[in-house]
Amino acid sequence: MARGRRRKLLWSKLYTFACGTSKFEADHSHIGGPGFSRVAFANEPDCFDAVNQNYGSNYVSTTKYTVATFFPKSLFEQFRRVANIYFLFTGCLSFTSLAPYSAISAILPLIVVIGATMVKEAIEDWRRYQQDIEVNNRKVKVHHGGGKFEYKEWKNLRVGDIVKVEKDKFFPADLVMLSSSFDDGICYVETMNLDGETNLKMKQALDVSSDLQSDSSFQNFRAIIKCEDPNASLYTFVGTMEYGDQQYPLSPQQLLLRDSKLRNTDYIYGVVVFTGHDTKVMQNAMNPPSKRSKIERKMDKLIYLLMGALVLISLIGSVIFGIATSEDIQDGKMKRWYLRPDDTKNTFDPKNADVAAILHFLTAMILYSYFIPISLYVSIEIVKVLQTIFINQDIQMYHEESDKPAHARTSNLNEELGQVDTVLSDKTGTLTCNSMEFIKCSIAGTPYGHGVTEVERAMARRKGSPLLEDEQPDENHEHPKPTIKGFNFDDERIMNGNWVNEPRSDIIRMFFRLLAICHTAIPEVDEDTGKISYEAESPDEAAFVIAAREIGFEFYQRTQTNISIRELDPVSGERVQKTYKLLNVLEFNSSRKRMSVIVQDEEGKLLLLSKGADSVMFERLAREGRNFEAKTKEQMHEYADAGLRTLVLAYRELDEEEYKKFNINFMDAKNSIDADREEKIEEAADSIERNLVLLGATAVEDKLQNGVPECIDKLAQAGIKIWVLTGDKMETAINIGFASSLLRQGMKQIIITLEEPEIIRLEKEGNKEAIAKASKDSVMSQINKGKGLLSSSNDGSFALIIDGKSLAYALKDDVKNLFLQLAVGCASVICCRSSPKQKALVTRLVKAGTGKVTLAIGDGANDVGMLQEADIGVGISGAEGMQAVMASDVAISQFRFLERLLLVHGHWCYRRISSMICYFFYKNLTFGVTIFLYEAYTSFSGQPAYNDWFMSFYNVFFTSLPVIAMGVFDQDVSPRLCLKFPMLYQEGVQNALFNWPRIIGWMFNGVCNGVMVFFFCTTALQHQAFRKGGEVVDFEILGATMYSCVVWVVNCQLALSISYFTIIQHIVIWGSIVVWYLFLLAYGAITPTISTSAFMVFIEGMAPSLSYWITTLFVVIATLIPYIVYSTLQMQFFPMYHNMIQWMRFDGHANDPEYCQVVRQRSVRPTTVGVSARIDAKVNQLARKVHHAVHSP
Q1: Which among 426, 702, 889, 970 is annotated as catalytic?
Q2: Name one GO molecular function term (predicted).
Q3: Is 889 considered catalytic here?
């Protein structure tokens, strides 16, 4: 619609419910009191009184740190980890004489690790800062006096400024709207950034200011706005505007919130009332709940375990050292003369053996610090960030139509994606497209429309009767009709004007005329093509207007009091223009469940046109208007069975006297200042919406997204339980369940509902206490009955279906555990008519009750609570805005991508992180055990086995990159096989790769390897001639040799553990060993005052000696042989599921159906949900029939 025309609308006469003129009510009596002290001086932000208010600026900061707080806050975050506190403690002790090595070598690794994490924090915060700069530097027109508006940065706005916001721009602060490009001060606002809803909301300025239509009109404008203090409530606002010596009440209808967008309106003028962090959107801003994976929490326990073991061995060593020290000098002879116990004060003084033991304990705590993997946390963070990059870059999860890839918004939960036990899903917009299509209708008791829904296809498959007519829909059409969004209707009886030949053409004309008139949509005319599109408050409403247009009743224009349509004249056969005077619009809301308009046609007839839910419409029909009621109800039931959403259409003619009486009552109610104003309006509307004549019913389809049944089937095969939490009716939810393969024929349904005669009788009586008691008893009875069915059935699967009323009682504290026990025993769970709060409570119940990982997936603002409550929240970036995505941990654009996200990336991430942590503890134990044994070998004298810098660089340079590469690139099974054998996913659900036996096994392997390295090296070198001159080794050469063996062993062990080699892994594994030798060369060439015991140790001591090379080769092979033997036996005789798939691929059987089926039969549990379960059920049924036929006489 042209802008100039739209600017002339007087919408106050149309939107009687939502936009009524604000009146003083009880709430406004609080103005000026506590909590309502905000004062804004419009157009005078610099006046004395305004400056004294000292309100904050409009600068917004979402950063975690500032320049001043970065170091203290970041350091505090780092030292919340007990491991870092321990390393800080040992670092401080390293500056004392107790340290067995230099202070800098002890403190440098800690600085590197903490520095790397702080750099990561700084980079992330810098990105937030850059975003803040972009937002704060946006510009908006601000009144600078003299009726002139100039651009000003958002951050410089002040309370009281008059701003002009133009079409498709965001509001820079919370504004009180003064006027708009429409004469009546109406504007349309999109609040997607606030509540995730994409449907437009209407706002209206006060009548007194709505005539301020130009910049110059604000030259002398002055007003004082008093309102509530800043708060987080998005939907309430109480205030007054003092203008021209009068006070006018303000309501939420005049408040425009920051970060919402102006749509379909050329411009608005407004006064800034809340700025910066006082705005409602910033008051709502909060850090999302902190989520940590179960593996990370178990890793903390391992750290504590190792620290406990470290303290224990330090204590044991100190006791032994104290005893040995006390006996060092006997009869004037020194046993350990090399420690000079006769020339020491405390450390080795036999007279103060107790003190020596205590000091040795502190020395041992420093020396054994290498049992704790200092670089573990930072390495895992690096790996997780790289893993999220691979998830984000996966082309298989890119949706070309919406141009949206997958986006892992946090890297903390990567491994949790591989451990999901239960998926809790929204339906509309998640399983379905949230794109409504007009597909069928019932008019005068006659069904129209031949389209076949996804649910009908599934039902046909369920009954074994495929819909052949839908197999090739375009066979009889040379030129298939173009696809029209929102319209999938096909019936030649009423298409192309053929409706005029139908027996009840008069009712058909009124039916589609109603669809073209009874709505709040706005037509938009494309200036280039002339095509009309519609801006509607919901997809359903847009589908109705489009359907009317396609049948031949085109809504094309809306003026201030008229609606114009083009329709076919049955007499002349020509398209004619009809204009209807729009008198009243009675809007739809959740309590009314209907919408009506009152119009006057060109002949002067007054018509009430109404559409609404069957639960409220049939009871409003006149006795003579029920001619087709039975047939319509029957067809609506069929439509519901087909998964369609239905609305009833009815109308009536009004006489002038009746309308005048209604209009007086309605306007009195509208202008009422009493607290019960809304009730009076409702009562007036209810009085006229009576004695209607039934026209028929509409049926629109919310289609399943592509790939949903297949995705659910794969997830079910993976052993993942799937719950659907929806606000739809039970019949619709059940049919969507069949279409998506959550339900199947032969599956026993346990239905819990309160639609019982006794409950209905009590509801009519209105005794709330009796209703609550009877309802709770009924729910408990049905739950216990369901549990009885579960326990008495040995075969077959169950589906639990519960409605919203019953769910409210099932979630009570004394019932919820019974409900959970029943639900967990069922293959599928569908919760109907669920509120957002109920969704969150169900998610919390499953998470806490099962102790397993839960994943919630949804697309709307009503799913936010559920997403935040679950262990993992997945947001669908669909048609309901970005609120769910903003609250999620991972965002995807289609439900089907959940299959690859979990079964491929989830499995890989879980396996990689698990293996990485186990390997970290293994390599540190291997290294730490050699240090401990060498100190024991030297009678716990505190002598380190290695050079200071050897120990410092062990975790940083010689063993860190290979394990990071494994955490990023390793694959036990290819993506194709991950999807082909979904039961592989159960390894993560059952935590098979990070359970205590596996962890202890790796730790035991580390201890054994450390013992073998030490004893093989000392035995081989202790008493043997090492060089040609017959010299034996000194402790420098022994330490460097042991260190070489450790570096070789742990890197070769990693190579043996990797399933999938890339060139990067080869480079980092063998490169780490090469780097060790290069370091030994370079460091040994430095002056001995720096290199100390490593001076020329390789060039002069180790490299020329054949013994060193032979010893290294022998020790590495001997140490790794036990692991090789164990792995071979385990894979051969006790293979895990991924081992079986690896063998199958290695043997070339990956494409052999029979062999693959054998592998599948080794799955952890039978599949009871999905397409595969349906096929298995049919096969089993046929097998039973064959068996019965063979054995029957």
Answers
A1: 426
A2: magnesium ion binding
A3: no
